[in-house]
Design a protein that fits this description.
By secondary structure, this protein is an alpha+beta fold. About 50% of the residues lie in helices and about 10% in strands. The strands form four sheets. Strands 1-2-8-5-3 form a five-stranded mixed beta sheet, covered by helices on one side. Strands 4-12-9 form a three-stranded antiparallel beta sheet. Strands 6-7 form a two-stranded antiparallel ribbon. Helix 12 (about 235-255) crosses helix 13. The radius of gyration is 25 Å and the shape is globular. Residues about 1-40 and about 45-55 have low confidence and may be disordered.
Length: about 450
């Protein structure tokens, strides 16, 4: 072994560097006198020190939370440092992590960063990412750049405009009221995840797409696999194939007999004129199914958790229901369920403050860190339903890929808060907070159960 080869990793000061120097000295001594110092042992010690040094320079990502309702503490430390920091992903690759509000927003609006999963250097956030990379034809439009992205997204834009989804508010309100009447009549404790926050968003997206009630459990179960990092690549692949086949059959049924749902409109207005193919329509509908209910369900459960554990919040909303829309934006900012962020890759060299991101390098944008940026949101770790600029949060992203369904999600979240405050005024947690199970392995952070009593 060349005695000077490892020295390049020792050019960083501090206590850890001294430990590495000691390890290296022991290694060289072991090479000179193998009888007195077993080389195998010393080599192992040295390699462990190098690994520790390497992980300090590029820590593993995603990072672990110490509080279930706050982002991992290292994110705040990184935000206070360089404009971007290197982290190591689950597959061993290194990418840039961006944590400040200003830089996250800037990159999301910068066309020099691509959302295409197959692009060189694109971060593999989950096993599903590798699946999309190997089958780019099955990707939805959120994994495309313009002009293809805009071509496909524009076919849905009208249906998800604020004024369009407002027409759904009465139906959503009625659905919530009927659901909560049944819950209120039940014997507590009741799990509001199983009885409210999960089934209602599923029913809303099923209503929008014209999916039969009896099929909701099927698509809910398979959708859950796609956003959970705990499943194997084969399990994710199988769940996606099942879901795609289900969607394809639903599309074919609407080709034969169109109705008034969104899938029928796409068939009549886009598929038949030749603007859209079935192969393009399947991932489009998959996106609406998976993102349309899973994310809303996760956010809704965390919103209710805050309602039941923050007496000040509950009192303010009861006293003044007009605060609910602002409170929803504040809760979206505070919880930021897309916990691991959004992935991009640079298509050319970009100078980001004091960091040069080179073409072909991956970037992860931490939405949760940006939404807790004290430079943008004073006292970011507190929930303030009257925060004046809460709607500037990054929970829905920014730029051309900003969440298509954000207005629908906000209506569901608003009406759920209204309905719970009205129908379950005395609801409270039925178990200690410490016993709640949080879903750390899913892309959309949430809570497994929410048992309440009254």
């Amino acid at each position: 072994m060349h005695a000077e080869t490892p020295r390049s990793v020792l050019d960083h000061g501090g206590t850890l560097n001294l430990a590495l120097d000691l390890g290296y000295a022991l290694f060289r001594e072991g090479m000179r006198a193998p009888r007195r110092n077993p080389v195998g042992l010393l080599t192992s010690i040295y390699l462990c020190l190098v690994t520790l040094h390497d992980e300090t320079l590029a820590p593993a990502y995603p990072m672990e939370r110490t509080s279930p309702i706050d982002p991992p503490p290292p994110l705040a430390a990184l935000r206070a440092g360089a404009d971007a920091s290197q982290v190591t992903m689950w597959d061993g690759s290194r990418v840039w992590l961006v944590t400040s509000y200003a830089h996250v927003r800037s990159i999301l609006g910068d066309r020099r960063f691509t959302a295409v999963t197959s692009a060189p250097g694109f971060p593999m956030m989950t096993r599903t990412s590798t699946l999309i990379r190997s089958q780019p034809q099955s990707a939805s439009f959120i994994r495309m750049d313009d002009p293809e992205h805009s071509r496909l997204r524009s076919m849905l834009t009208r249906e998800f405009l604020q004024r369009s989804v407002e027409d759904m508010r009465p139906a959503i309100k009625d659905l919530l009221d009927s659901t909560l009447v049944k819950i209120a009549a039940a014997q507590p404790p009741v799990d509001l995840v199983a009885r409210l926050t999960q089934p209602v968003p599923s029913q809303v997206i099923a209503l929008l797409l014209g999916i039969p009630d009896e099929a909701q459990d099927y698509f809910t179960e398979r959708s859950a696999v796609l956003i959970d990092r705990g499943y194997t690549a084969d399990e994710v692949k199988a769940a996606r194939e099942d879901l795609d086949q289900f969607i394809r059959e639903h599309i074919e049924s609407r080709i034969e007999e169109p109705r008034s749902d969104l899938v029928s409109k796409l068939v009549v207005e886009q598929l038949r004129p030749g603007n859209l193919t079935i192969d393009e329509m399947v991932p489009m509908c998959r996106l609406l199914l998976v993102a349309g209910h899973g994310t809303t369900a996760s956010q809704a459960a965390l919103n209710l958790l805050s309602l039941f554990t923050d007496a000040g919040l509950a009192d303010k909303l009861r006293a003044n229901p007009d605060l609910v829309p602002g409170a929803v934006d504040e809760l979206l900012r505070f919880h930021t369920i897309v916990q691991n962020g959004l992935a991009r890759a640079a298509t050319e060299d970009v100078q980001l403050g004091d960091v040069l991101i080179k073409a072909g390098e991956g970037v992860v944008l931490s939405l949760s860190a940006s939404n807790r940026d004290e430079q943008r949101f004073p006292s970011p770790d507190t929930i303030d339903p009257q925060r004046a600029d809460a709607r500037r949060h990054m929970a829905f992203g920014h730029g051309i890929h900003q969440c298509l369904g954000m207005w629908l999600a906000k209506i569901e979240l608003e009406e759920m808060l209204h309905a719970v405050l009205r129908r379950l005024p005395d609801a409270r947690l039925a178990v200690p907070f410490e016993e709640l199970e949080f879903r750390h392995e899913v892309s959309s952070y949430g809570i497994a159960t929410l048992p309440v009593t009254w």
